[in-house]
Structure formats: C-alpha cells, structure tokens
Write a structure and sequence with these properties.
With 652 residues, the chain is an alpha+beta fold. It has five domains: 105 residues, no CATH class; 109 residues, no CATH class; 102 residues, Immunoglobulin-like; 106 residues, no CATH class; 121 residues, no CATH class. The strands form eleven sheets. Strands 8, 9, 12, 14, 15, 16 and 17 form a seven-stranded antiparallel sheet that branches. It has a five-stranded antiparallel sheet with strand order 18-19-20-23-24. A hairpin with a 4-residue loop joins strand 6 and strand 7.
C-alpha cells in the first residue's frame, strides 16, 4: 500500500477541481495495487506525476501550464484499459507482475513543523517536559512565561496544576499576567466570572468559588483558583475558663483541645473580652480614631485624584486598585461594643492577658479562625481587620464568673513613729510599649516613702514624676529585681497612691492610722518586711477574704468577703463587709431577698443587681462563711485556720 511520510498533497492544498482530484486519487490507488518487476521505473514516473499535480495545484493560472496532460507510467495506462473480468494483463511489452504485493512508499514533502513540534523532540510525545522547555526561547524570556510552572496549569484531573508536562492546549494558552487574563475572561466587565455568562465552565465556577459561596468568581478567587482547596467546619472550643494570677499581674485564660501548638499555621484562636465598664472610655478613644481616619482618608483620596488620569485610565475602580497597591487605603476603626478583641501570644491552650484595667470585671471568650475555605453551609464570618481569615461567629465565653484584678496599696513601717512617721507605699503600675505591634503591656511594682505627721496627716496622693522622685521612687519587676524608674517610666507618668488613711499618732512602737471607711488601723512593725504577693486562687469559684484593717494589736479586724453566685443566667457578686473581734465569725450565709445593710449585691458590671433578679431568687442563699478570726501574728492574719498576708487575699 502507499504510505505518506508527510501530509497528503490533496489534503494540504485542497479542495481542488473534480477532474484533477479524480486523476490524482486514481494514480494513488493504482500505485498501491500494481505489482510489477519494473518497480523502479514506475515509481519514478509516478513521483514525476505527483510533482506535476503539486505544481498545478500551486499554480494560480487556470488549467495549469498550457493544459498539458499528466504523463503516466505504462503499467498505470494498461490498468485503466477495459478488459474482461479476471483477465487483466499488463500492456504489451510490460514485464510480468511479481508473485507477492509490493510495499510502495511515496515520499512527499514533510508537513511544516510549528514551534511546539520543533521543541517536542526528546521524546516526541506531544508534550514539553522541563528539559524541552528549557531549550525554548521562553526559558530565557520575560516573566511570567519564563517559568515552567506558569505553563503547567492543568493536572491529570483537569483542575489542579503540577503534572510536570506542558500539553499543546497549555501551549495554545500561554501564561498571562493574572489581571490581564481575568479581564479578558470577564466578557461583560462586571468584575466577576460566571458560568451563566459563558465566561467559565460550571466545574470551574464550583471549584474556584471561595467562601462566602455566591456562584461568582472574583479576581482574588481567580488568582487562588489552583491553590489547595481544603475545607473545614469550624467548631467552638470547649470549657473556657479565666482566673487571676496576682503574683504576676496576669489574667490566665484556658480552654480544652485543640492546643494552638498542634494547629497548622492557617488556623488560629481569637481571644475576646467583655468589659461594659470600659465601653464609654473606649468610645471616646474611638471618636478620636474616627477623626484621624477621616483625615487620612481625605488625604488618600486627594492623592488618588492627583495621580489618576481619566484620559489614559477611564476605569476608576480599576485605577483605584492600582493606586491602592502602592498606597494602602486607610481602614476605618471598629466601633466599640461590650466585647473587644485582645492580642498577645498564645501558648498551648492558654492565653495570658496583661492589658486589663484593675477593678474592672472581665468575661473572656475564645473562637477559632481559619484561612481554609469553610465547608458549604458552615457558619463563618469575615472581618476586614483579619484579611483572608474566616471566623467562627459563635464565641465560647468563660463558663465561670467574671474576673477582677484588684490593685491594693501595700503600706509598710518605714521608721520609728513619734509624732510623725515614714510609711512606705507599694502598688502595681503598668507601662505600655507602643513601639511594637501589638503594643506590649508590662506590670511593675512601684514604691515611695510618705513622710506624715499630725499636722500634714494624709497618707498618699496622686503624684507626678517629680513628686514621685521626691518620695524616693523605686521600681521592681515581678521577680523583685530593682530597676531604674527613669529608664522605664514616661516623663508624664502619674500614679495614684491615695490610701484614704490619715496618720493619727504612734501607738506603742507602731503608727496608728484612721480611716472614715475602716476605722482605726494599727500598722504592725512587721510590715517593714518586703511585701509578699498574693497567692493565686485554689479554685475558679473561690471565696475571697481580705483584711481591710486591724487595731488594738490585732484584737479587732475589718474584713471583706466576696463570692460570685449564679442566679439563673445572671452572675451576681455578693460582698459582705464587717468588723469582728478575735474569736468571732467572719461572714455568714446571705439570703438574696434580705441581705442586710452590711451586704452589697452587684451584677457582672459592678452595678447594683437588678431588683427583678433579686426578687426572682429572693429565697436563695449564698455561703460567705469564712470561719473565725483568730488574730494577727506580725503581719499574718488567721481566719478559719488559714493564714494570709495582711495586704493579701485568702481564697477559700
């Protein structure tokens, strides 16, 4: 049979007129079946005939060259003569046919190679592998076509990249700048690619669409279309708890698995806290931020108007995106609510907050966020301030009561008392470092020595840096190491050392103070020792016992006992305050409906509990029985068989 090494002349140059086409087809047919010993001469004559046909096909002159006929070999002419059935013989003078078929190969001009075929040479398999690509001019050309991965965009499943080969289809769709490619695909210029507009297929729409699923593919989704498409169904974390570590001035928030150390980098925890008492202050700060944002936005818009050329770039929306790439647009501040997000390092299943205010009640909550696509139908939200992340909308709040960090002023005996006294005052003070992001809050213990006498008897006050230095300002870290205050405290620092006490006189060897709230207070000589930090609570729902003052050598003491109580869905803070003599009970059982004048019942924000809540739970009781007051030993107070520092807190 006849076999071509290249493309058929007729296929390559047709269609042609029927007479010529018929002759050429007949030539090829006869050439395939003729069996003769004069093969060489017949082959040469046939090739001459084919060349003649090719010449006529290429000619622009009708009828070819003078209408000359195509010469045929003798064997072909004889085969065209009419004869009886099964009696065909070669023409007179031709040689006898061979006894078996002849494989007759007609060599014709090869098909011209395009660029893809030219470099698909080792092996010639219809693909470019990496070595073949590196021999092309693209490898040393400009981006994005100079990288193999930019061409290899379709994998074995037709969706994911990375099969390691460049197909002809990929070659026919060379890499483009993503914005250029997106704009070309966006036929109706609405900023989206959809299957209903015929811009992408339904499979592409389904695979490229990211949360929130809207059956539309925007530019960023188009850019990320081949990225890993992991999906997660975010769930709430469990058993969130918060407690105070007074020794380090931290609020410790914990929760159950998963621990953050075991999470991939595209999943994180978000910590929030609720503090209604601080909302108004934060709203004031918010109004100042809005003013700064408004000014920054106006400057940004002015800059854009000067940069934008309407004639050369009429698409304003597109121009703004280009401008924003080099000039980030200001982000509007978030209006404050009861809940605020806090920042800082998370380790394992624990977050330690140092940015709180003392005396404020805080409720903490934890929720998760991910950069992965939420599953279709999963509940998730987005936040402009956390770009690229999806948040689980339901926060898991602490199951227990809110927490409060108190900052008591610790008084010490700094010298012998006559008609005057030197009293040391120590408290915690926080310093904010705004030079890092997020801002770092560090707590220090600061101490001054107050010189008082009967004529100038106020103990403590609100002091600026100059007044603090005049009182021998000292500063220590949480470990007790003394530091240089001028290297840490800003020059505009003000610290409140008001104690509400007045110096009266000395009582024996000890100073005697007076308070309109707590009666007389004898400051023991043992308080000249270094202050002791309070111990952390032993339980999450501990009763707190504090000694407010002692007199008569410890024979009588003023105490405050606090316990949180959950009445239905409301947390109440029940506080008993009273003066007891040594050997008497501190606190007792409190009935919510008739608490008494020595009891305050507060809600979670520190305000008086609503009457409706108290009425609904009037028959319920809260146990504030701390035990008997057993006296004062040096500076240790004993209540119910347990001792604690005079300025500390006993948790029972």
């Amino acid at each position: 049979m006849a076999q071509e090494n290249g493309a058929s002349a007729l296929a390559q140059y047709g269609p042609v007129g029927a007479p010529i086409a018929g002759v050429v087809f007949l030539i090829l047919f006869v050439a395939a079946i003729v069996m003769t010993s004069g093969i060489s001469e017949g082959k040469d004559a046939l090739q001459d005939s084919v060349r003649s046909v090719r010449t006529k096909l290429d000619s622009t002159t009708p009828g070819g060259e003078g209408g000359a006929s195509i010469p045929l070999p003798d064997s072909v002419t004889a085969s065209m003569q009419t004869g009886e059935k099964d009696t065909w013989k070669p023409a007179q003078g031709s040689q006898k046919p061979l006894g078996m078929p002849i494989y007759w190969q007609v060599n014709m001009d090869p098909k011209p190679q395009d660029e893809f075929d030219q470099y698909d040479d080792n092996p010639k398999d219809g693909f470019w592998d990496l070595p073949e690509f590196q021999r092309t001019p693209y490898f040393t050309g400009p981006a994005p076509r100079n990288e193999f991965k930019n061409w290899d965009v379709t994998g074995p499943n037709g969706v994911a990249p990375g099969d390691g080969l460049i197909s002809r289809d990929e070659y026919n769709h060379p890499p483009k700048d993503p914005r250029e490619a997106f704009d070309e695909a966006d036929k109706n210029k609405d900023g989206w690619l959809t299957s209903k507009d015929g811009e992408i297929s339904k499979d592409e729409e389904y695979n490229w669409d990211r949360y929130p699923f809207d059956s539309k593919v925007d530019f960023q989704e188009y850019v990320d279309r081949y990225k890993a498409h992991d999906e997660v169904d975010l769930g709430a974390v469990e058993n969130v708890a918060a407690k105070i570590d007074p020794a380090t001035m931290e609020i410790v928030v914990t929760w159950e698995d998963p621990a953050v150390d075991s999470l991939p980098p595209d999943i994180q925890f978000i910590i929030e806290r609720r503090a209604p008492e601080t909302v108004e202050k934060r709203r004031s700060e918010y109004r100042q931020k809005v003013q700064k944002y408004t000014e920054a936005l106006r400057n940004w818009e002015d800059g854009f108007d000067k940069w934008w050329d309407k004639e050369t770039n009429p698409d304003k929306k597109k121009a703004q995106k280009e401008y924003e790439a080099d000039h980030p647009k200001p982000v509007a501040p978030k209006e404050p609510s009861d809940w605020e997000e806090v920042v800082g390092p998370i380790s394992g299943n624990e977050y330690r907050d140092t940015s709180f205010e003392t005396g404020v009640t805080y409720t903490y909550a934890v929720k998760m966020a991910t950069q992965k696509n939420p599953k279709r139908g999963a509940k998730a939200v987005t936040d402009d301030r956390l770009e690229g992340w999806y948040l689980y909308p339901d926060r898991t709040a602490t199951a227990g009561h809110p927490v409060i960090v108190r900052n008591r002023i610790v008084m010490g005996f700094a010298g012998a008392a006559t008609d005057s006294a030197n009293i040391s005052l120590t408290k915690w003070h926080s310093v904010v470092d705004d030079s890092v992001s997020p801002a770092k809050v560090t707590w220090y213990r600061v101490q001054i020595v107050e010189k008082v006498d009967a004529d100038n008897s106020a103990v403590g006050g609100l002091y600026n840096m100059g007044q603090l230095k005049d009182r021998g300002l000292k500063m220590m870290d949480i470990g007790g190491t003394e530091l240089n205050p001028t290297e840490i405290l800003p020059s505009d620092t003000r610290i409140d050392f008001n104690t509400k006490y007045k110096f009266v006189t000395k009582l024996g060897a000890n100073p005697l103070l007076a308070s309109s709230e707590y009666a007389d207070f004898e400051l023991p000589k043992a308080t000249s020792k270094e202050m002791q930090p309070s111990s952390p609570p032993s339980t999450d729902d501990a009763m707190e016992v504090r000694c407010l003052s002692v007199k008569s050598g410890g024979k009588e003491g003023n105490f405050e006992v606090t316990r949180w109580y959950k009445a239905g869905e409301d947390w109440l803070r029940v506080v008993w305050t009273g003066s007891v003599k040594s050997g008497s009970d501190v606190g007792g059982e409190i009935k919510l409906g008739s608490a008494g004048s020595d009891v305050k019942i507060l809600d979670a924000t520190g305000k008086a509990a609503p009457a409706s809540v108290l009425k609904a739970h009037k028959d319920e009781t809260v146990d504030l029985s701390a035990g008997k007051y057993e006296g004062l030993d040096d500076r240790s107070v004993s209540v119910g068989g347990e001792s604690f520092d005079l300025f500390g807190t006993l948790y029972k």
